[in-house]
Design a protein that fits this description.
single chain, 129 residues, mainly alpha, 2 helices, 47% helix, rod-shaped
Length: 129
């Protein structure tokens, strides 16, 4: 009986140590997935603010955009939300850049290059990555 307790104690301690090592890396991976999805949603909203509405309405940068004009280009006329649940801060002006209150200005980290009519998106790497 005494040996069983020791084995159970060792196994339990090993499980706790494994969990302590696993949980932070799991949380970090989850945050990266959430940030990537957030960036995808911000790119969708950015495309509407900088391309769709201004082209359709023949606007210049800085012209105000009605929120309904933005919603016309969104699926089910609903502005996407960050996967963390917060609402994006959307400047309703042509050429505006939406920002996530949780993840910050992710679009500042993205270089969008228009190559012969198709758009390629490159993530800028921060030093040390």
């Amino acid at each position: 009986m005494h040996v069983r307790r020791r084995i159970l104690l060792v196994v339990s301690a090993g499980a706790v140590l494994f969990a302590l090592g696993f949980l932070p890396s799991h949380r970090l991976a989850q945050q990266k997935r959430e940030q990537k999805k957030c960036l995808q949603y911000l790119l969708q909203v950015n495309e509407v603010l900088n391309c769709c509405v201004p082209l359709e309405k023949k606007m210049k940068p800085g012209d105000p955009i009605a929120p309904n004009d933005v919603l016309d280009f969104m699926k089910d006329r609903v502005l996407p939300r960050c996967p963390s649940g917060c609402k994006y801060l959307v400047p309703y002006v042509a050429g505006g850049r939406p920002v996530c209150p949780r993840h910050g200005d992710l679009l500042r980290e993205v270089a969008q290059v228009n190559v012969f009519g198709s758009q390629a998106i490159y993530l800028k790497r921060s030093p040390g990555e």
